[in-house]
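A.,

Following up on our hallway conversation. Structure tokens first:
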């Protein structure tokens, strides 16, 4: 077992000399409040496009299909610095045995899976987690002291990968590890230890409060996005994978040495010259962990995005998939390094997932970081940036592409940026007279930013009352929510749904926000952070490509992205 995840084979020893006791986490000196107080800025990088695309695979014989699935699994797990491939039943079973598996969810979240579009497709959302565990000899060699063995791991890298329902674009959003959030009550699936909900905690603590499933549920509550799967990797896995793919190209504008400085202890140890170059093994890990030399934790996330974009381009290149030896090496290394949620806990299932990703060209991949502002309670911590963060999560929930190269279908069945055609009631019971339908309106606009819009519930209750729903009333309580949800009591069945859709028609709410719930006794409109003004919800939907600049978007085809180095770390 590793970090509450079952594994049949452990990861191997990784090369490299032991790090000093001041190395902590994916980021050096993670818990040193003096290190970079007040510095959360980084010049934005230029984007570009290479127009790359992949040929769709045709139907083949089962054996050929299995080989193709295993190959494309390499692209799936490359998103979490992984890759996999192989051939032969015995070897296939061996790879399955390598995989660590754990429960998808271990906390409290009632976010519903989005409804399928007219073609039966739904978006796929995968949470990628980088663990700072020191609970293996290989991980301990790569950073930390012996005293850190047995300590609860932290989720110091967290990224959400969103694959659109039409499989034509992919969006990635990181959340900085020092972002303050609400963590739900979680239960460790292995020890059954329960952890009480918290209202003022740092998001990387979630991994130690119930495993990856607690991290997943925290994300769902924060974003309103249903997350299908999680994948997790540790230090040793990063080192092994960097070598298995033949190194990953990175770029810095100035020569960098991320080292301890007076008053700023720690440092990843990264020391490379200026310009483009490939990094391998331990140096690749240092690149991913570097914080101070890239200005702050937001800069670190941007460097990670550049690395992943480069790795994905490399895995898509002809060299990887025509080199059988490299494919087998990727398979062995990746499955040994990877932990996954149990519903995708076989190479076959990972391969099926990979087949969904293979048609996304590099120029339809967008890497971003959730917009944030400094936490006024502690300037070394961050909180989501109101409207900008709400826009990012609205685009994910409504399946709106982060790039403007195409019109990705939204979860409402329309096109991104278009008014949803969702309020028409399907065949079934007719809605009751409006004057007889009680509606409770709850102000959830504090979700994502912690700052509610005063009077928001009352304003929408009045809109409903003016439209004939005279029993609509504002709730005196608040319930922060990233997204708007219209719930009806599960016990009311089809009639409750018909009545809820009648309410939705007045406010132009899409069908995908209408859901059945056992937690409400009457129709309840929870007004989320995505709807802070106005009475027409359809006008809140962003258009394709409207990612706010504060998200620091990097296009997957940008081969010229290059990191600026904070002057004290230039050598």
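Then the amino acids I'd put at each of the 571 positions:
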């Amino acid at each position: 077992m590793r970090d509450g995840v079952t594994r049949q084979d452990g990861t191997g020893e990784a090369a490299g000399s032991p790090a000093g006791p001041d190395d902590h986490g994916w980021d050096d000196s993670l818990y040193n409040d003096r290190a970079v107080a007040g510095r959360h800025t980084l010049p934005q990088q230029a984007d570009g496009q290479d127009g790359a695309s992949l040929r769709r695979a045709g139907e083949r014989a089962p054996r050929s299909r299995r080989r193709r699935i295993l190959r494309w699994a390499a692209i799936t797990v490359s998103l979490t610095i992984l890759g996999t491939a192989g051939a032969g039943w015995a070897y296939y079973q061996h790879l399955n045995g390598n995989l660590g598996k754990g429960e998808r969810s271990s906390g409290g979240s009632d976010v519903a899976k989005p409804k399928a579009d007219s073609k039966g497709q739904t978006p796929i959302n995968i949470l990628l987690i980088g663990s700072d565990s020191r609970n293996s000899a290989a991980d301990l060699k790569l950073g930390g002291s012996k005293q850190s063995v047995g300590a609860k791991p932290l989720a110091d890298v967290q990224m959400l990968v969103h694959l659109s329902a039409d499989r034509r674009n992919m969006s990635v959003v990181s959340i900085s590890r020092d972002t303050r959030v609400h963590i739900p009550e979680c239960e460790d699936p292995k020890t059954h230890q329960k952890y009480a909900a918290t209202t003022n905690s740092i998001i990387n603590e979630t991994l130690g409060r119930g495993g990856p499933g607690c991290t997943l549920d925290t994300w769902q509550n924060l974003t309103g996005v249903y997350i299908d799967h999680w994948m997790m990797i540790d230090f040793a896995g990063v080192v092994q994978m960097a070598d298995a793919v033949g190194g990953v190209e990175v770029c810095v504008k100035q020569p960098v040495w991320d080292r301890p400085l007076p008053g700023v202890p720690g440092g990843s140890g990264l020391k490379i010259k200026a310009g483009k170059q490939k990094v391998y093994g331990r140096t690749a890990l240092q690149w991913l962990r570097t914080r101070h030399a890239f200005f702050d934790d937001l800069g670190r996330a941007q460097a990670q995005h550049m690395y992943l974009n480069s790795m994905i381009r490399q895995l898509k290149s002809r060299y990887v998939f025509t080199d059988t030896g490299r494919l087998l090496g990727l398979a062995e290394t990746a499955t040994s390094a990877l932990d996954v949620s149990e519903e995708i806990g076989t190479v076959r299932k990972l391969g099926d997932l990979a087949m969904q990703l293979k048609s996304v060209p590099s120029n339809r991949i967008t890497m971003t970081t959730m917009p944030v502002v400094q936490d006024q309670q502690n300037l070394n911590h961050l909180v989501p940036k109101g409207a900008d963060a709400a826009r990012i999560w609205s685009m994910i929930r409504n399946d709106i592409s982060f790039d403007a190269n195409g019109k990705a279908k939204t979860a409402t069945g329309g096109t991104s940026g278009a008014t949803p055609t969702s309020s028409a009631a399907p065949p079934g019971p007719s809605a009751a007279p409006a004057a007889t339908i009680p509606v409770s309106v709850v102000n959830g606009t504090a979700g994502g930013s912690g700052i509610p819009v005063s009077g928001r519930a009352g304003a929408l209750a009045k809109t409903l009352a003016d439209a004939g729903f005279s029993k609509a009333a504002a709730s005196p309580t608040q319930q922060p929510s990233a997204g708007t949800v219209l719930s009806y009591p599960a016990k009311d069945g089809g009639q409750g749904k018909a009545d809820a859709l009648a309410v939705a028609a007045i406010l132009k709410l899409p069908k995908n926000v209408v859901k059945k719930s056992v937690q409400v006794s009457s129709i309840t409109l929870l007004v989320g952070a995505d709807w802070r003004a106005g009475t027409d919800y359809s006008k809140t939907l962003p258009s394709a490509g409207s990612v706010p600049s504060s998200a620091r978007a990097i296009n997957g085809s940008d081969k010229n992205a290059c990191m600026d180095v904070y002057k004290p770390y230039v050598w």
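The first helix runs from residue 62 to 78. Curious whether your intuition agrees with the design.

B.
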